[in-house]
Amino acid sequence: MIPVSKPLLDEKELGQITEVINSGMLAQGPKVKKFEDDFAKYIGTKHAIATNSGSAALHVGLLSAGIGRGDEVITTPFTFIATANSILYCNAKPVFADVNEGDFNIDPAKIEEKITSKTKALLAVHLYGQPCNMDKITDICNKHNLSLIEDACQAHGAEFNDQKVGSFGTGCFSFYPTKNMTTGEGGMITTNSDEIAKKARIIRNHGSQKQYFHEMLGYNYRMTDIAAAIGISQLKKLESFIEKRISNANYMTNHLQKIKGIIPPKTFNNRRHVFNQYTIRITDDFPVNRGEIEKVLKSNDIGYGIYYPLPINRQPIYEKSNNDNFPVSERLCNEVISLPIHPSLDESDLDNICTVIEGI
Asked: Distance (Å, rounded) from C-alpha 181 to C-alpha 341?
């Protein structure tokens, strides 16, 4: 079986975990602090604040930017539901803008028409590891005085114009096992703002800076030292993981771009795509539909994923409150399929995947 994703951990992570267990400091402690420092240095921000999940990072990131009841936050309907849900957690309203076909990310040309007097932030998603067009997005945020929150949960190490995502605004990362690096469960907020960093640290710790003194409503979103220990080791390997993903992606694209009806993921000269997912599009020119491709992949023990089968605005919890249509997102939901791309694949695995698809 070739899984669609696979975390890579070895004795280095085991050694880090053993060290934490032997220390007796299992909750948030010195390993979390080191992981935060290391991650901030890697992203190029002044601060990094660890959380227990990517969803928690998004929630705290928005709250720290002052998002609250009655505010509107513009985001994409073509992403994992945690992006929009984090806005609801703040008692704010997600306002969707459609995406580009080329990069699967929010279309800057569709953003300004969604801005109202209630709009307080833009939550941009770097989907599949592909950076958004940050030149245009930062210009829009500056022009309209919007807070910029980056959902970089799938984009560790991705870059736009040689600047890492998560450093343009308030970055939010996930370390779930399917990501380019993992802590099992975990998240991280990155920022250059002292004010946002201070508020985020308070919110993730029950609203407290000093034990048993609670100055605001907060949550138990702390990361454990065990998770941070894994993260410290994984971060050291991240660049090698990314380079292998990029190499695998180039190999797959060189083979699949020859097939009529398949559109491989695009890359751009000024963006570093880190391929958390290798997502192709199956168009009407392909001889069979996506469902038939799924059957063939299953029969050949090749993992795959449909990320995502429905735009968020059509999810049951959203469709009653949102009547807009997003034709690009709808089309992509019917066309996309993600193939294995993780660093543990060798050339024979890649050949197998390509051969199976070529043979359909």
From this structure: 14
